[in-house]
Every structure is written in C-alpha cells, then in structure tokens.
C-alpha cells in the first residue's frame, strides 16, 4: 500500500459528536483518509446549543501544530472554529511556516443554535490574514454577508459575493452555501474563471447540526487524496446531501447528520 492520504482539522470540539473536530474526523474516516486534529477550543455543546467554551492557550495550539507537522505531514488542512484574533494570527503564521497547501477554510462564526463561536473583532483578521492562504473557503449566507458586507438573498447576489471573495480578497476558490435559502440546497462555486451551481433537493429536517463542518471536511479529505478541486466539491456535496437525507434521529435539538449514508449509498449497504 502506498502512503495513506492524511488530513488535519484545526477546530473546536463538540462532546455530542455532531460538529467541529468530531464531525471532521468522522468525515475523514468515511472517505478513507487518516485524520488528525489540532484543538483550538473545548466547547461544551450538544444538539440544543452551546453552554460554554474555553479557548486553548496559544502555546498549546502552536505545540499541537508542531507535533503534527514534525511527524506526519498532512496532504490537506481545514480550519473551523478559530474563536479569536490571536488564534487566527497564530494559525496564519504556522500555515506559512509549514508551507501549507490544500487549505480549506470553513469560516465558522455562529453555531446553528445562534451562539457566537468567533469574536466580533476577529472577523477582519479572518479575511485579512487567512483568506488569502485558502485553496477554497466555504461560507454560508450569513458568513458571506459578513465577509463581503453585502446583503445576499438570491443566486445573483451569491455570485457577486463569490466573485468579491476570490477577485478582491484573494481566496483561490469559494463555495457560497445556500443551505439558508429556502427553495433548493443550491451552492455557488467560483474559482476565478468558472462559476458553477451545486444543486440538491432541500430536505425538511432539523438534523443539520454540523452540516458546514462536514461539507468542508469532505472537500479536505478529497483534496488530501489528490482529487481535483471541482470534483472534490462535487463529492462533498453528495456526501452532505446523503448525510442530511438519511437522518439518524439523535438529540432533542438540531441533531447530527448521518456519516454512514455516503458509503451506504456507494456500497448499497444499510448501516443506519
Ligand atoms: N435542509 C437541507 N437539505 C439539503 N441540503 C442542505 C440542507 N441544509 C443545508 N444543506 C447543504 O449542506 C451544505 C452546508 O450548508 P449550510 O449552509 O447548512 O452550512 P452551515 O450553515 O455552514 O452549516 P453549520 O453552521 O451547521 O456547520 C450545503 O451544501 C447546503 O446546500
Ligand atoms: C466546534 C464547533 N464548530 C463549528 C460549529 C458549527 O456547526 P453548527 O452551525 O451546525 O452548530 C459548532 N457548533 N461547533
């Protein structure tokens, strides 16, 4: 067997297993990629919301990144919850020092429950320090509005925001996710030359905790395997659509998605 593809997630935790690091590692595993993690914050949360969280000391975040890079170099990296400005600056500095490529940014700002996971003052750092380093960034509509300062209510406005994020702010590519528009689950992909629409049925379900984490982790896993970017995004869309379509009905609030669903479909199995 050749070298196993490896992916790293830099993000916060979710003890209930639906979002953050936990969603990312489950996704990596299901897509046959060896998963590693750097924890930025320990978050006490479940399907009902966030109770509290504690940011990891900067030295510990730095030491975790060094521990990974000194030993097992990942083929692709994603960031999720980065919490505050000095974490963003540190991660940007380490990304440059380790010459990271295949970087997927999920610009996590607010949890589905409405709880803030990024300090208000840190939003400009995310755009200035990290966005130019990304291979692809995956904002949902409120995040794309924050990044661009635009109101986004339709597909044309999603395209305008996507263009600004790449052409002005320096991301290599973007997917503006339309999970918050209410007709279809329509996302806009733009890579500086080509616009594309990723369209799926929109399922009427409350089991959408960690959808953004899972989608960006699936792109990261595919990039780690060497899949071309456009195709990686396509696979990630299929993965998240299947994971939403076949809910596992856990939790009393916004339940987690089903990480078995994608492979069940590939293999014609029924694990859940
Ligand atoms: N109800 C749904 N049915 C089908 N697809 C959906 C649904 N909700 C979201 N999606 C898709 O899931 C992916 C993630 O989108 P979403 O906008 O929910 O991300 P997000 O808000 O960042 O998620 P989160 O904050 O929960 O991590 C997108 O491809 C989106 O189109
Ligand atoms: C650690 C962490 N990262 C990201 C999310 C966003 O996911 P959601 O919007 O589904 O709550 C979360 N809840 N927790």
Automatic annotation (TrEMBL):
Enzyme's top EC category: transferase
**Reactions catalysed, as given in the entry:** 4-amino-5-hydroxymethyl-2-methylpyrimidine + ATP = 4-amino-2-methyl-5-(phosphooxymethyl)pyrimidine + ADP + H(+); 4-amino-2-methyl-5-(phosphooxymethyl)pyrimidine + ATP = 4-amino-2-methyl-5-(diphosphooxymethyl)pyrimidine + ADP
Hey, which pathway is this one from?
Answer: Cofactor biosynthesis; thiamine diphosphate biosynthesis; 4-amino-2-methyl-5-diphosphomethylpyrimidine from 5-amino-1-(5-phospho-D-ribosyl)imidazole: step 3/3; Cofactor biosynthesis; thiamine diphosphate biosynthesis; 4-amino-2-methyl-5-diphosphomethylpyrimidine from 5-amino-1-(5-phospho-D-ribosyl)imidazole: step 2/3
Q: Does the keyword Secreted apply?
A: no
Domain of life from the UniProt record: Bacteria
A Pfam family this chain is assigned to: Phos_pyr_kin
Looking up SUPFAM superfamilies in the UniProt record yields: Ribokinase-like
Presence of the UniProt keyword Nucleotide-binding in the record: yes
E.C. code: 2.7.1.49, 2.7.4.7
Q: What are the recorded Gene Ontology BP terms?
A: thiamine biosynthetic process
The record's annotation in NCBIfam families points to: HMP-P_kinase (TIGR00097)
This one is known as Hydroxymethylpyrimidine/phosphomethylpyrimidine kinase
